[in-house]
Amino acid sequence: MKTLQVALGKRSYPIYIGEQLLTQTELFAAHIKGKEVLIVTNDTVAPLYLDTVKETLANYRVETVILPDGEQYKTFEVLQAVFDGLLKARMSRQTTIIALGGGVIGDMAGFAAACYQRGVPFIQVPTTLLSQVDSSVGGKTAVNHPLGKNMIGAFYQPQCVFADIDTLNTLDDRQLSAGLAEVIKYGLINDADFFDWLEANMAGLVARQPELLTQAIARSCQDKADTVAADEREQGVRALLNLGHTFGHAIETGCGYGVVLHGEAIAIGMVMAADLSQRLGWIQTAEVERIKSVLQAAGLPITVPEEMTTGRFMDLMAVDKKVQDGAIRLILMRGIGQSVISDDYAPEHLAATLDAFC
Asked: Does the annotation mark 118 as catalytic?
């Protein structure tokens, strides 16, 4: 087992990465506050892992809430089921919420934990590659709105993160590829050596070689933990983690939540960011081609869905958390491993990128 630390002073917490973590009673006990636990999961993950976690927590009073699976259910209406479960079971402020599932479950359970009785502890148990390397770390919690993704939420840090590699064995190929998009993102942001490593090892990662997956997850989590420690509430450098996300979130919202997976949309968004960076003269054609090649090797799309138009992109990108004073700030690249936050681009260059993809 590898253990990393998210350094946030008194709110610091560990990330555990390894096998058979779901059965580690003492490890869970070290981070559970009180004797009451609410496990929030979904109808895909519950048949696979819920009984295992309940057995591990046999000495606790355990209640469960099982939500429908899918990004389209990341809504206030579905979130009410978590609050209903807490209130009907008369769970106290000493309750620990456990998020057992992918990014949607982690975001919703974390948001519920931030709100219930003004804040109860929670533990992230991510079961997808994407959630293990990204959404479970850093304390971002949210629900979607029909007009924009993740626009309503809170920064609320977990007690710890359990990234059990065994859970990836039940992940389908499409979801694995979606997770690899976020892994590739870390190489593009500020870790060119990691990008080189991913190019050399992508076939093994797609083949689910455990030692390679463990290395990729640990490297990704370390990169994110360092960034979160430097800028917890995204006032500066943490925004770099949104590479491809302004384009990608527009695709997710425009196509309907759940139609295009988050990682798929981010892959397309990163290619669009690379294209715009090239038009600005910041990166070379060869670098854009390397980015496209590694994404395709990971089984990810690099073209925009047919229903997205330039106008649709502009409308949706204008409703984004990174818009400041009416300007759309984008994460662009001055080279592989050299991402920057910028609104220093001519509107015609952005329009040219959108037109090229749409």
From this structure: yes
Is 112's pLDDT higher than 80? yes
Distance CA 114, CA 345 (A): 37
Under 8 Å between Cβ of 143 and 111: yes
Does pTM surpass 0.90? yes
Structure-block tokens of residue 237: 């450098």
Confirm whether 145 is a catalytic residue.
no
Number of other residues whose CB lies within 10 A of the CB of residue 70 = 16
Determine whether 264 is an active site residue: no
- What is the longest distance spanned by two Cα atoms in the chain? 62
**Among candidates 81, 161, 157, 153, which has minimal Cα distance to 120?**
157
Catalytic site includes residue 321: no
**Residues pairing with 154 in the sheet:** 141
Residue 31 appears among annotated catalytic residues: no
Burial 91-130 (b: 16+ CB within 10 A, else e): beeebbbbbbbbbbbbbbbbbbbbbbeeebbbbbbbbbbb
Contacts of 313 (CB under 8 A, 6+ apart): 247, 250, 254, 354, 358
SS3 for 164?
strand
Asked if the model's pLDDT at residue 358 lies above 80, the reply is: yes
**What is the rounded average pLDDT of the residues 93-115?**
98
| Cβ contacts of 277-286, under 8 Å, gap ≥ 24 | 277/332, 277/333, 277/334, 279/349, 279/352, 279/353, 280/332, 280/345, 280/349, 282/332, 282/333, 282/334, 282/335, 283/333, 283/334, 283/335, 283/336
What pLDDT does residue 206 have? Answer: 97
Question: How far is it, in rounded angstroms, from Cα 99 to Cα 103?
Answer: 9
- For 253, half-sphere exposure in the C-beta direction (CA atoms, 13 angstrom radius) is 25
- Contact status, residue 188 vs residue 332, Cβ threshold 8 Å: no
Could you give the CA distance from residue 134 to residue 220 in angstroms, rounded to a whole number? 8
The pLDDT confidence band at residue 26, using thresholds 50, 70 and 90, is very high
From the list 63, 71, 182, 264, the catalytic residue is 182
